[in-house]
Amino acid sequence: MTFEDLGLRPEVLQALNDLGFEKPTPIQKEAIPELLSSQRDLVGLAQTGTGKTAAFGLPIVELTDFTKKHVQALIVAPTRELGMQIASDMKTFTKHVKGAKIATIYGGASIDTQAREIRGGAQIVVATPGRLIDMMKRNIIKLAEVQVVVLDEADEMLNMGFKEDIDSILEQTPEQRNVWLFSATMPKEVAKIAKNYMDNPFEITVGTKNTTAANLKHVYYTIKERDRYPALKRILDLHPNIYGVIFCRTKRATQEVADKLMQDGYSAEPLHGDLSQGQRDAVMAKFRKKAIQMLVATDVAARGIDVNDITHVVNYNLPEEVENYTHRSGRTARAGKHGISVALVSPREIGKIKSIERIIGKEFEKGEIPSGDEVSKAQLFHLIETVKTTEVKEELGKYLPTILEQFEDLEKEDIIKLFVSSEFNPMLEYYQKSYDLNASVSSRDRERGDRDAGRERGRNRGRNDENKQRFHVNQGEEGGLNKGAVLRLVCQHSDISSGEVGRIDLFREFSFFEVDKKFADQVLQGMRNAEFNGEGLKVEFAGDKKGGNRSRNGSRGSNNNGSRGGGGYKGNGGGSRSGGGSSHRKGNSGGVGGGGDRSRRRRRG
Ligand code: AMP
């Protein structure tokens, strides 16, 4: 089946052609004909990376009358990043369609600019729930003529506490509008939305719940705690063409690992919430352009990263919440591509691997950290491929006689040795001193692992505990809250012991905690006067705000600061070929990414 067969308008076919989309993905094949031929609601169980944006976006473009100047389609997404990505896709699909206007509205940016986009006659609006509600309240946006509402990543929106906002949005759109809901999982709360607002929806499932893509391989390496960073470097060195995201648990660790990598000459930059939005946008832009090869990110900041071609996700540490592993690994193996998710674990953490295997429904492979010799060979091979595919500029011709004269007395083999050594000595020197980084796992570690995995299962079972009351707090990580602070505040103000406080989920702008129901009123009363960092906290029963049973970090972050790619084997005497920091891919010299990236040179040590 081709896009022509789907009956899309020629301007859209042209745009798809420009994009290089040759044929529809499975979800597009199923959804597009149905959405175009019948005015139906839809529930799509699908993750990002399946092509779902076009699956709902293309029918929207077909169904919209671009001669009119009012909002006809509304796409609601959990985060600013995802919203911007969807809007960018919609703009691309409509770039040849006359009169098409797409507005993007999200928090944290000027409402006036966004209001102008709406007043300018946008027919399609992509929005995050909070800002949309705000603009609805101020009468900036009217939804009376909306024909389609798309809820993208619905489970994520509910986890982030947007249930009430979604209800109000759906209630303020005309009754005859269609709702197209997409979700990676189908917890009860999402099913409830489908039940309340949809009529006999068409259902599509792409991939099964919680399983990760078949083209995604999971590999773990056991290392001693103190070898975490050298092990990371070895893995990166084994894959000179890597284009990846390295996850750390905290903002501080993220910055530290990124700093070390940058100092060691790797093309890496950090992405975390301590950076300003502008910095995060800048680093993301560089990463998208492949001007940097690696992002070192926190879970929160990396939510919503929607970049194709990521070859590796590296779990520098496993996530605190094992469920977050799926979100991390889902950054790679997108759009049918292959990807590898790598985890560095200490022998004590083996149990977590088992818990994750249960969640992803797939086994990890056990990897061996390569020896210095293997890494050196991989790097040498890469260097040779790079040299062989290097373009020889015409201007070199005028210097050639002088160059040849300089090498007159040397044999070909000597010349090769000298050139390779001039590039490769630092690498050889670094790996000369290398030792085996693989840690053995003792039977005690394994037993502990089994116990930990058992406890984790118990903890997961407890999550839907009917005996617990969940509370919503109007501050989150951005305001400096952490789990310890939440625990302290709850205990201090409500006079209960820390053992009575259950699960705590922190998000960027808000958080949740749970206590046994018998303390619910006591906590609600007690927290009335709670303050954090000099600001009064608003603590309410989460009730309808309840965030599902998985913990996901909702965010819009991504961030940065200034290094440039490139590096350069410092100390190699001669001029480096390093191309000023941009790592354009070309050629094909091994590595999952398949692009020969020449500009990354490293200084070892
Ligand atoms: P999505 O699930 O919408 O995030 O899509 C994942 C990626 O797949 C997007 O970056 C699209 O550019 C790409 N994509 C979507 N549909 C197609 C298609 N039919 N052919 C090739 N690439 C596609």
Description:
- With 605 residues, the protein is an alpha/beta fold.
- Among the domains are: 3-205, P-loop containing nucleotide triphosphate hydrolases (Rossmann fold, 3-Layer(aba) Sandwich); 214-371 and 434-458, P-loop containing nucleotide triphosphate hydrolases (Rossmann fold, 3-Layer(aba) Sandwich), CATH 3.40.50.300.
- It is 38% helix and 15% strand.
- The protein is built from 21 helices and 22 strands.
- It has a seven-stranded parallel sheet, with helices on both faces. The chain has a seven-stranded parallel sheet with strand order 10-11-9-12-13-8-14, with helices on both faces. Strands 16-17-15-20 form a four-stranded antiparallel sheet.
- The radius of gyration is 26 Å and the shape is globular.
- Residues 21, 24-25, 28, 48-54, 306, 308, 334-335 line the site of adenosine monophosphate (AMP).
Structural descriptors:
globular, 605 residues, Rossmann fold, seven-stranded parallel β-sheet, binds adenosine monophosphate, 22 strands, alpha/beta
